[in-house]
Design brief:
The complex is a heterodimer of chains A (about 60) and B (about 350).
Chain A: H1 2-19, H2 24-57
Chain B: H1 3-21, E1 27-32, E2 35-37, E3 41-49, E4 60-67, E5 70-73, E6 76-81, E7 84-90, E8 101-110, E9 114-125, H2 171-195, H3 198-229, H4 238-259, H5 263-287, H6 312-348
Parallel strand pairs in B: 2-9
Antiparallel strand pairs in B: 1-3, 3-7, 4-5, 4-8, 6-7, 8-9
Classes of the chains: A mainly alpha (about 60), B alpha+beta (about 350).
């Protein structure tokens, strides 16, 4: 029961935080999400290239 | 590296720096009390945003406006705290046109910092006609001509949105960039149907993939924004719904490609499906949402990003942002297309060790 009420109050605190400073942190969250998405995509692409290189060039791909 | 790739980075850097650092203008966040009665003195407690209130309230002037020809000026202004002022008004005994109630707009002018306006800041009801009036003031046709226009560059203040108006440069620009990429995808799909080339197919596929990715980013960033401005991340708003449908239609494009083995057949089917997906995209994103009332700007018959949603300061960041994201998306699609072509070539010529 304590865990549940603590969890709910944590959510309330997060709500206050996001609404503070003119909701600037909402902007931060949006930009961070875009960056994380793009970085994740870059990692995906990099892995695809690495796999392709291994396939084409063989085992001596660093 | 090609010039347009470098340009995309420069533009996006500019958009991030300017979009995040330029300050928001002065605004009024709240006014208490909301209900006031005519014929009474009232002291409005006004909370401000981004105003540097110092100890000299004689720099501040305030008016309550009933309509364009009926205003009253505050008789005194006091500083309550660094974000709050108190403005005293003598509300006239009678409302213009003998009305019984009305909305009042609050206009506060801060010297050197600009003017803040809050429509429907207070609601006035006429006192009953036989109540004695405490005030002798009258609504008059005050011409607010010498309001202070602040010369520093700033973005407009909008109540509820506040700083999140900056999301326009990220959430909205991503959608427009997506439209550019998906338009390119459908054009290249049509070209593919005519030349049958696998390289063209690879380019169409790559543009669609990046467009879809931007669409996903658009929906998720929109949900974050909505959570703190509309109150809920998903409110079955018509535009949220139609864009989700459009994204599902494009998701099926990738499922279709995966289900076909032969690359030439895959290319042909993908191109045809891409055309249909695009034909569905236009009414889903641009026609249906405008037909009904919605929380999204651009509903109820008005085109989005019109004069109400963007002012000239924002346009200086917004239009470059669209171009920047579109160019960056083009770069991403070029990488994906190159990988795709290499993987097909490696399969075809069987250079597997």
């Amino acid at each position: 029961m304590m865990i549940l009420t603590n969890f709910v109050s944590m959510f309330g605190l997060a709500h206050d935080f996001m609404n503070s400073m003119g909701k600037m942190y909402v902007v931060v969250a949006v930009v961070a999400l875009i960056l994380v998405g793009i970085f994740g995509y870059m990692i995906l692409i990099d892995r695809k290239i690495t796999r392709l290189e291994k396939k084409i060039k063989g085992g001596n791909v660093r | 590296m090609k010039w347009w790739k470098v340009l995309s980075i420069l533009i996006l850097l500019y958009v991030h720096i300017a979009g995040l650092l330029v300050p928001i203008g002065i605004g009024i966040t709240s006014v208490q009390p909301y209900q006031i009665r005519s014929g009474e003195e009232v002291a409005l407690a006004i909370q401000t945003y981004n105003a540097m209130l110092d100890s000299n309230p004689s720099d501040v002037r305030a008016w309550l406006k009933y309509d364009d020809h009926s205003l009253i000026e505050a008789k005194n202004i006091e500083l309550v705290s660094e974000k709050e002022i108190s403005a005293g008004f003598d509300i006239p005994a009678l409302l213009p046109d003998s009305a019984s109630h009305g909305d009042l707009t609050l206009i506060v002018d801060f010297r050197d910092q600009g003017t803040a306006v809050l429509p429907r800041a207070a609601y006035v009801t006429a006192a009953s006609s036989d109540a004695a009036s405490n005030t002798a003031s009258r609504w008059s046709d005050i011409n607010l001509r010498d309001l202070n226009v602040v010369s520093t560059f700033h973005f407009p203040y909008r109540s509820i949105l506040q700083e999140t108006i900056r999301n326009t440069y990220f959430h909205v620009s991503l959608w427009l960039a997506m439209m550019i990429l998906l338009t390119g995808a459908v054009i290249i799909s049509i070209i593919q149907l005519r030349n049958g080339s696998l390289i063209t197919d690879s380019r169409a596929y790559a543009l669609t993939e990046v467009g879809f990715f931007f669409g996903l980013l658009g929906v998720t960033t929109g949900m974050i924004w909505a959570q703190y401005t509309w109150g809920k991340a998903w409110s079955w708003d018509i535009k949220q719904l139609t864009t989700a449908i459009a994204l599902v239609i494009y998701a099926a494009y990738f499922l279709l490609r995966n289900s076909v083995k032969d690359p030439y057949q895959k290319a042909k089917l993908s191109a045809v499906y891409n055309i249909f997906a695009y034909i569905a995209l236009i009414p889903l994103l641009y026609i249906i949402p405008r037909m009904s009332e919605s929380l999204h700007p651009g509903s109820g018959g008005n085109p989005a990003m019109g004069g109400e949603d963007l002012d000239n300061t924002m346009r200086m960041i917004f239009y470059p942002a669209v171009i920047g994201w579109a160019l960056f998306g083009l770069w991403m699609s070029e990488l994906i297309s190159r990988i795709h072509q290499l993987s097909i070539m490696s399969r075809k010529s069987n250079i597997i060790k």
